[in-house]
Design goal:
The structure holds two protein chains of two kinds. Chain A is α/β, with parallel strands linked by helices. Helix content of chain A is about 40%, strand content about 30%. Chain A has eight helices and eleven strands. Chain B is about 40% helix and about 25% strand. Chain B contains twelve helices and 14 strands. In chain B, the strands form three sheets. Chain B has a six-stranded antiparallel beta sheet. The chains are: A alpha/beta, B alpha+beta. Chains A and B meet through strand 8 and strand 9 of A and helix 8 and helix 11 of B.
């Protein structure tokens, strides 16, 4: 018997087609890539699509100040609608630096879990925070095993019925960060964005893992324009 | 159980293969680069123009034989028991198919007579030059190691490029016996060519990037890698040293230089429209993807200084690579550059080349 999977649209039409209509609901998805490939923009589409359907979304950014997030949102044609949803509190944006986040993140997660209205959470970026705490003097946690345990705990906190999460994961162009290397095993899906620079910059999207989904196996080319991310139709 | 597992590792600027047996025997590693077929073809055609077909054929037989021996020595191969020879030969030549050497598509081996016959079609390089002796030499080198005595080979192709045929037999008259010690890997080979891979903060590309972004096609039918329809093939960097050595030993360095530089210029003209620094920046990424190290360019008035970090090093100090870059610079800047100096630094390995216009 085939299991019926409820899906959550990302809001990028051709991407949703690549994953049978959307990512599985209640799942945790990692989106990885080097700088400049559009990981954060990808999550904006996701927040917008969910908020349009009346779902409450939380976006936590751990590296950029609020002004930069505003600038990013306002550079796209969907800015007006996005800002309206922020003002209606359908989308909540929180920016923290690492030290602030280190102090409050356990409580923050408890609040998120307890708030039944929150259906969508995006953490941008997830792995950089852990590489920070792993090296921080205050925590005195250095071993790889402990780091993995911390990651496991953080991912477990996000596993709640009715909460679908996207975690952006910063990687180098080729290397996989120590912290990032454990995450693909813990998440339910992994979307990789990458670029190739040969004269012009070409970006491609890959979906190496998506549980409960017969995802598109080839990579697809995409562009970042005024409408955000657009997957390019490829000739057969 | 008996045959080594081969794993290819590719990182920006660095490609190498590791061979490992499941039980006991030691690991062997070889640093590889991908090279454009058309550059070697141009070199061979230039050699034919200057030396004639017979002498070129003889030269390339020697190059092939030394390359075959080098391949075997680097993977620590020894004389093989007769009973296992057919399987070993099959394993080795199936591996060559992946590099575009499709002369070895069908293999038959007569144990009693020690006759190896390889047939195929559309083999790289010789399909464009009509000189298959390099591959006959390669087979001869491999067979000589596996049999434990000198075995020669010859090409008996029927119609190029569709009827490739190479036969190795104990009955073929002795043509060339190389000095094996010269083909062994140097003491520095491992220190120089397998660096600790550093964090790739300046976003150089790797070969897998070219594959993932569909810039390199793998033609499953004939086993050839193509970059924009130009065939590229993997080669252990020592093989480029063998080629260089043979040209220099025969006092034909100017043919080597002319062949590679002009071949690269022609190739660049066919592949790239954009000229100047922008065009050259593409080459930097392509060289990184093809395993030639991380290339950094420093432009001065009539001079370009090229630093190649983690360059693949053979005993000829990056001659092949420096000539290839020379050809690219000539094309992208419409000038005739000359190599002023090549310096090699170790730890980390950096090759510094000064080109002057």
């Amino acid at each position: 018997m085939k299991l019926k999977i409820n899906r959550q649209k990302i809001g990028i039409k051709d991407f949703d087609n690549m994953v049978q209509g959307g990512i599985p609901k209640d799942s945790i998805i990692g989106i990885s890539g080097p700088p400049g490939v559009g990981k954060s923009i990808f999550t904006l589409h996701y927040l917008l699509e969910a908020a349009r359907k009346g779902q409450k979304c939380v976006y936590i950014n751990l590296e950029e100040p609020m002004e930069n997030i505003d600038k990013m949102i306002n550079s796209f044609s969907f800015a007006k609608e996005f800002n309206k949803l922020i003002s209606e509190k359908r989308i909540v944006i929180k920016c923290y630096n690492y030290s602030e986040y280190e102090k409050i993140y356990s409580d923050l997660f408890v609040k998120i879990i307890e708030d039944d209205d929150i259906k969508i959470i995006v953490i941008d970026s997830f792995n950089c925070f852990f590489s920070y705490v792993g090296k921080s003097e205050s925590t005195k946690i250095h071993s790889e095993g402990n780091n993995r345990m911390m990651l496991h705990q953080a991912v477990s906190m996000l596993r709640k019925k009715g909460l679908t999460s996207i975690l952006t994961l910063e990687t180098g162009h080729e290397r996989s960060d120590d912290f990032c290397s454990g995450i693909p095993y813990l998440v339910d899906g992994l979307i990789k964005l990458d670029f190739l620079e040969l004269g012009t910059i070409e970006r491609r999207i890959f979906i190496p893992k998506m549980r409960w989904t017969d995802q598109y196996k080839e990579s697809r080319s995409y562009e970042i324009g005024i409408k955000g991310i657009e997957i390019i139709k490829e000739e057969e | 159980m008996f045959f080594p597992k081969v794993v290819q590792i590719n990182k920006p600027g660095i490609i190498y293969t590791c061979q490992d047996r499941k039980f006991g025997s030691p690991v062997s590693k070889r640093r590889q680069v991908f090279f454009f077929e058309d550059i070697i073809v141009n070199l061979q055609l230039e050699t034919i123009r200057q030396m004639g077909k017979k002498k070129t054929s003889d030269l390339y037989y020697k190059i092939g034989k030394e390359s075959g021996i080098r391949c075997m020595l680097i993977s620590r191969s020894k004389k093989a028991p007769n009973i296992m020879l057919p399987s070993i030969l099959d394993y080795i030549f199936k591996g060559f198919l992946g590099g575009g050497m499709s002369f070895a598509y069908n293999l038959s081996y007569n144990k009693r007579e020690t006759i190896l016959s390889l047939k195929g079609r559309n083999n790289i390089i010789c399909r464009k030059t009509g000189i298959p002796s390099e591959f006959a030499g390669l087979v001869s080198g491999i067979m000589s190691i596996l049999i434990g005595k000198n075995i020669e080979a010859e090409a008996r192709c029927s119609r190029c490029p569709y009827g490739c045929c190479i036969v190795a037999s104990k009955d073929i008259q002795t043509k060339y016996i190389p000095i094996y010690n010269k083909m062994k890997i140097s003491k520095e080979y491992h220190n120089l060519n397998f660096p600790v891979i550093e964090k790739n903060n300046d976003f150089k590309h790797s070969f897998s990037h070219l594959i993932r972004f569909k810039k390199v096609d793998i033609n499953m039918k004939n086993g050839k890698f193509c970059y924009k329809e130009k065939v590229i093939f993997p080669t252990e960097i020592g093989i480029l040293g063998v080629i260089t050595d043979n040209y220099i030993r025969n006092r034909k360095r100017q043919i080597l230089e002319k062949g590679i530089i002009e071949g690269t210029e022609k190739l660049a003209g066919e592949l790239f429209k954009e000229k100047g620094r922008k065009g050259m920046n593409n080459i930097v990424q392509i060289l990184s993807s093809l395993g030639w190290g991380y290339t950094y360019l420093n432009y001065k008035k009539n001079e370009i200084i090229v630093d190649i970090r983690h360059a693949p090093i053979d005993r000829y100090n990056y001659v092949f690579g420096s000539l290839m870059i020379n050809g690219f610079l000539n094309y992208f800047f419409d000038k005739k550059y000359k190599i002023k100096s090549i310096k090699q630094m170790t730890n980390p390995v950096v090759v510094n080349i000064e080109y002057v216009a």
